[in-house]
C-alpha cells in the first residue's frame, strides 16, 4: 500500500477554512477514554468529542454495528426505507413520549426541522400570524441560519443578517419574562433543559413546568433541545425525564450515534402529520449506516446499569473536583447533571477557561469550555474510575499553572 500523505497541525492553517482553532496536536487513535496523538502522546478524554462519544472510542458495540452494516447497505435514499432506521425509530418511540421520528444528520438539522414543524403547525392552526418563536438568551441551537437566530448568542448570528424574523428572546429561567412574551401568535417555545454551550446552566423545574403551562394555554409547541443532554448524558435517557415535563418536540443528536453523525426530531401523532409528504426532507437522514450504529449505541446506553453508572460517576467526578478546588480555589461553582459538568471560574480567573484547557492538553487531558468562564467536562458515559482519577491528576497540574 502507498504511504498516506504526511500532514501536520500547521496544514490546518494552510488548507482549512479558519472557523476553528484546534489544539496544537492531532489525535490519531482512541480506545475507551484515552486517545493518542501523532507523537504517540496519550491523553485522558474528558471532552468526549463534545458530548458525542458516549461509549468512548472504538467501543466494540459501535464498531461491530458499523462494520456489520458496512458490508450490507450504506445508503438507499428516501425513496426507500430501511431496516436499521425502522428499528431505531421503534427504540426511540418505545422509550420516550414520542410517537414519530424524523431523522437527520446533526443537532442543527434536528432543531431546524423542529422549528419548521412548529411554523407549519402554526400555519395550519388557522390563527392569523401564529409564527412567533420564543427562545432564550444565551441558548445554543446550532449553526444554520434559523438555529443561530433561535440561539441566544448574537455573536453567532449578527454577521449573517437579515435573519429569519419572528423570534423573541427572553431571559432563561425567568418565567415572568416568558409569560410576557408568549401569546396567541406564538407557535413554539424552544429551550435546552440544561444550557450546554451557554455555560452548563440547568433550567429550573418550575420554569419548565411554567413553560409547559403557557404553551398549553396559548396552543404553542414546547420544543426541548436535548442535543447535548440526551441519550443518557444526565443519567436519565433524556433530561425531560428528570423534570416531569413532557415536550411536544424533542431534538437529539450528539451522543445518539456515539461518534457517527446522526440526529433526530421526535414528536407526537398530534403534530407529525403536519409534516406531510414533501414538506421537509434530507438526503442522508436515516441512512442505514448511521441508523445501525445509533441503534446499537442506544440499546447499550438505555439500561439501568449504564444510566445508574452515569449518576454514580457524576458523584465520583464531583467529589474529585471539590477536593481539587479545596486546594486551588479556582471554581466558584460546580454544576450540571450526570456527565455534563461545568466548573465556573472565580471572578479573579474570569476569561481563563480556554487557558486551562490548553494547559490541560499539555498535561495530557482533553477538556472543554462553555463560554470564557466555564470549564466543561462531557466524558464517555462509561469512563472507568481510574481514568477519572488520572484525568483529575492531570487537571490538577493544569490548575497549578493557573494558580501561579
Ligand atoms: C451541539 C448542539 C447543537 C448543534 O448540534 P450540531 O450537531 O453541531 O449541529 C444544538 N443544540 C445544542 C443544545 C447543542 O449542544
TrEMBL record:
Modified residues (N6-(pyridoxal phosphate)lysine): 254
Localization terms from the record: Cytoplasm
Superkingdom, natural source: Bacteria
Amino-acid positions noted as binding pyridoxal 5'-phosphate in the UniProt annotation, renumbered to this chain: 107-108, 140, 225-228, 283
Cofactor comment: Binds 1 pyridoxal phosphate per subunit.
Essential cofactor(s): pyridoxal 5'-phosphate
Pathway assigned to this chain's UniProt record: Amino-acid biosynthesis; L-arginine biosynthesis; N(2)-acetyl-L-ornithine from L-glutamate: step 4/4
Keywords from the UniProt entry: Amino-acid biosynthesis, Aminotransferase, Arginine biosynthesis, Cytoplasm, Pyridoxal phosphate, Transferase
GO biological process, one term: L-arginine biosynthetic process
Gene Ontology CC annotations of this record: cytoplasm
MF annotations from Gene Ontology: identical protein binding; N2-acetyl-L-ornithine:2-oxoglutarate 5-aminotransferase activity; pyridoxal phosphate binding
Residues annotated for N(2)-acetyl-L-ornithine binding in this entry: 143, 282
UniProt EC number: 2.6.1.11
Catalyses which reaction(s): N(2)-acetyl-L-ornithine + 2-oxoglutarate = N-acetyl-L-glutamate 5-semialdehyde + L-glutamate
HAMAP family: ArgD_aminotrans_3
NCBIfam families: arg_catab_astC, argD, PRK01278.1, PRK05093.1, PRK12381.1
Family: Belongs to the class-III pyridoxal-phosphate-dependent aminotransferase family. ArgD subfamily.
Subunit structure, as described in the record: Homodimer.
Note: May also have succinyldiaminopimelate aminotransferase activity, thus carrying out the corresponding step in lysine biosynthesis.
Protein name as catalogued: Acetylornithine aminotransferase
Organism: Acinetobacter seifertii
Gene encoding the protein: argD
Amino acid at each position: 500500500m502507498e504511504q498516506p500523505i504526511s500532514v501536520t497541525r500547521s496544514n490546518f492553517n494552510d488548507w482549512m477554512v479558519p472557523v476553528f482553532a484546534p489544539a496544537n496536536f492531532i489525535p490519531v487513535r482512541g480506545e475507551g477514554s484515552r486517545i493518542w496523538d501523532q507523537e504517540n502522546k496519550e491523553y485522558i478524554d474528558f471532552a468526549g468529542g463534545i458530548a458525542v462519544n458516549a461509549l468512548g472510542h472504538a467501543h466494540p458495540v459501535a464498531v461491530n454495528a458499523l462494520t456489520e452494516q458496512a458490508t450490507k447497505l450504506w445508503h438507499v435514499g428516501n425513496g426507500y426505507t430501511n431496516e436499521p432506521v425502522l428499528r431505531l425509530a421503534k427504540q426511540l418511540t418505545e422509550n420516550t413520549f414520542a410517537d414519530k421520528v424524523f431523522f437527520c444528520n446533526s443537532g442543527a438539522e434536528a432543531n431546524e426541522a423542529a422549528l419548521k414543524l412548529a411554523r407549519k403547525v402554526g400555519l395550519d392552526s388557522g390563527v392569523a400570524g401564529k409564527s412567533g418563536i420564543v427562545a432564550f438568551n444565551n441558548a445554543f441551537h446550532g449553526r444554520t441560519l434559523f438555529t443561530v437566530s433561535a440561539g441566544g448568542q448574537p455573536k453567532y448570528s449578527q454577521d449573517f443578517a437579515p435573519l429569519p424574523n419572528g423570534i423573541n428572546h427572553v431571559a432563561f429561567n425567568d418565567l415572568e419574562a416568558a409569560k410576557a412574551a408568549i401569546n396567541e401568535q406564538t407557535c413554539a417555545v424552544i429551550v435546552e433543559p440544561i444550557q450546554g454551550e451557554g455555560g452548563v446552566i440547568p433550567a429550573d423545574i418550575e420554569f419548565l413546568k411554567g413553560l409547559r403551562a403557557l404553551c398549553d394555554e396559548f396552543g404553542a409547541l414546547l420544543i426541548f433541545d436535548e442535543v447535548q443532554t440526551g441519550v443518557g448524558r444526565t443519567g436519565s435517557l433524556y433530561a425531560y425525564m428528570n423534570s416531569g415535563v413532557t415536550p411536544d418536540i424533542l431534538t437529539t443528536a450528539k451522543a445518539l450515534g456515539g461518534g457517527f453523525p446522526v440526529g433526530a426530531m421526535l414528536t407526537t401523532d398530534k403534530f407529525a402529520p403536519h409534516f406531510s409528504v414533501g414538506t421537509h426532507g434530507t438526503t442522508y437522514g436515516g441512512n442505514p449506516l448511521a441508523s445501525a450504529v445509533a441503534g446499537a449505541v442506544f440499546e447499550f446506553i438505555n439500561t439501568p446499569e449504564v444510566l445508574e453508572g452515569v449518576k454514580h460517576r457524576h458523584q465520583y467526578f464531583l467529589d474529585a473536583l471539590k477536593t481539587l478546588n479545596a486546594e486551588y480555589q479556582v471554581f466558584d461553582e460546580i454544576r450540571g447533571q450526570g456527565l455534563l459538568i461545568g466548573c465556573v471560574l472565580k471572578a479573579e480567573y474570569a476569561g481563563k477557561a480556554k487557558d486551562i484547557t490548553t494547559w490541560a492538553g499539555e498535561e495530557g487531558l482533553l477538556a472543554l469550555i462553555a463560554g470564557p468562564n466555564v470549564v466543561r467536562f462531557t466524558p464517555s458515559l462509561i469512563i472507568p474510575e481510574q481514568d477519572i482519577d488520572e484525568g483529575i491528576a492531570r487537571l490538577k497540574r493544569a490548575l497549578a499553572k493557573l494558580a501561579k
